[in-house]
Amino acid sequence: LVGLGCPRQETFVHAMRPLLPMPLLAVGAAFDYHAGILRRPPLWMQKHGWEWLWRLGLEPARLWRRYLILNPHYLLILMAQWARLRPA
Fold first, then answer.
1. pLDDT for 40-78, tens place per residue?
2. Residue 45 in contact with residue 53, Cβ under 8 Å?
3. What total of structural domains would you count in the chain?
4. CA nearest neighbour of 88 among 77, 72, 76
5. Which of 66, 34, 44 shows the shortest CA–CA distance to 55?
6. Are residues 45 and 34 in the same domain?
């Protein structure tokens, strides 16, 4: 489990993938939740997939670009690959 923060953990996992004989998983804020550093959202938000909105509300200056620009961009690229409009 790798919890270095985005995008460092993704870069690390990608670079180490060929060098380590084990699966690597970038876990984001999981360590902060388990350590009690970040408050968990209400149960209804957890059940309905709105935890990202809770985190955006807690740290808007840090997360706004990732959630409002980069994530939709990623989804567009993913859909283009799925539709075979863009190579994988």
1. 999 999 999 999 899 999 999 988 988 889 889 989 999
2. yes
3. 2
4. 77
5. 66
6. no
Q: Which domain holds residue 53?
A: 41-88
Pair 28, 5 in one domain: yes
Within this chain, do residues 53 and 87 fall inside the same structural domain, yes or no? yes
Which are the contacts of 21, defined by CB distance < 8 A and separation ≥ 6? none
Positive or negative torsion for Cα 16, 20, 23, 29: negative
Long-range contacts of residues 48-55, Cβ cutoff 8 Å, at least 24 apart: 55/29
Residue 87 carries which DSSP code?
-
Same domain, 47 and 66: yes
